[in-house]
Design goal:
Blueprint lengths: L10 H4 L8 E2 L17 E2 L9 H89 L3 E5 L9 H14 L11 E6 L5 E5 L2 H20 L20 E4 L3 H15 L5 E5 L2 E5 L7 E3 L2 H8 L1
Parallel strand pairs: 1-2
Antiparallel strand pairs: 3-5, 3-6, 4-5, 7-8, 8-9
């Protein structure tokens, strides 16, 4: 079998094809003189300029100087902070010592206050006991005395005239037994124009006060004038006359407060008997003896 081959072509066709070689300007080994700037086979690439050694030395020196300055500034700030911290610590120690001293003084003051409060409580208890004792002694001395208020003062007044006025009380108040001269221990008018009569017995005083209250009660029911100077046949315009026990200062104050609560309708009635103050909360309630102001306040609430 014959093989027919095609005839070879021209030599120009057999020669290798011309290839374009691309060169880069970044290569330092290239001969820049032999290369044309207009050659299309070259690419224009920016050349990297290397830093000189002297510039690196200057930059390192500058960096070291800046580091030293920063370190110096940091050291100065640290010294300032350390000094401030030491000052604060010293102040804190002083404050702590001051607080400890104040705490000790505070405890001492508390102990002193507690001691004073205890002593004050004891003194108040003792004073109260003494006041009660004095009131009891004073009430005992006044147990036979009574007071007559609003009795007109006479032009000529002495103990004899006052005694005669007192003796006329028995007939004016319709007492069962007239008052004898011997039953009047003493009679006088004090600075408040009140006549104080001291009898020899407590029963005579109580009988006279009881007759006085019954007399006014009857007159009040009959809507007549209460006991006054006209009933004693004294000259001048009639004046209402008030007869009561001779109370101690404490009992007089309690009775004043009790009558105030009666007017305010917190209590139904208030009266005295044998120098003691009694009140009644309601009409049917039992009488209550008042010894202290606090008892009256609690009862009147």
């Amino acid at each position: 079998m014959s093989v027919q081959r095609s005839p070879p072509g021209p030599l120009s066709l057999l020669s290798p094809a011309k290839t374009n070689t691309i060169h880069y300007n970044s290569d330092s080994a290239l001969n820049m003189a032999t290369t044309s700037a207009q050659d299309e086979n070259y690419f224009n690439i920016t050349k990297r300029h290397k830093r000189c050694f002297d510039d690196s030395v200057d930059l390192a020196a500058t960096s070291n100087r800046e580091v030293l300055e920063l370190q110096s500034l940091s050291d100065n700030r640290f010294e300032i902070l350390n000094s401030s911290l030491l000052t604060i610590m010293a102040q804190n120690q002083a404050i702590q010592k001051s607080i400890e001293s104040m705490s000790i003084k505070h405890e001492q003051l508390l102990l002193k206050v507690n001691t004073l409060e205890k002593e004050n409580c004891e003194q108040r208890t003792r004073i109260l006991a003494l006041e009660n004792k004095i009131d009891m002694l004073e009430r005992s001395n006044r147990s036979t005395s009574l007071e007559i208020r609003n009795l007109p003062k006479q032009k000529v007044e002495n103990k004899g005239i006052l005694r005669s006025i007192i003796k006329s009380l028995s007939s004016a108040l319709d007492t069962d037994k007239p008052i004898e001269e011997s039953e009047i221990r003493d009679v006088y008018r004090n600075q408040s124009e009140t006549i104080v009569v001291d009898f020899t017995t407590t029963s005579r005083k109580e009988d006279l006060i009881s007759n006085y209250r019954n007399f006014n009660k009857t007159k009040r029911q009959n809507k007549e004038r209460l006991f006054n100077s006209e009933h004693l046949k004294l000259p001048g315009t009639p004046h209402p006359i008030f007869i009561s026990e001779s109370l101690t200062s404490k009992a007089r104050h309690l009775f004043y407060l009790a009558r105030g609560n009666v007017k305010a309708k917190n209590l139904v009635s208030a009266w005295t008997s044998f120098g003691k103050v009694y009140v009644r909360k309601e009409e049917d309630s039992p009488p209550v003896r008042i010894n202290e102001e606090g008892e009256l306040l609690k009862l009147a609430m």
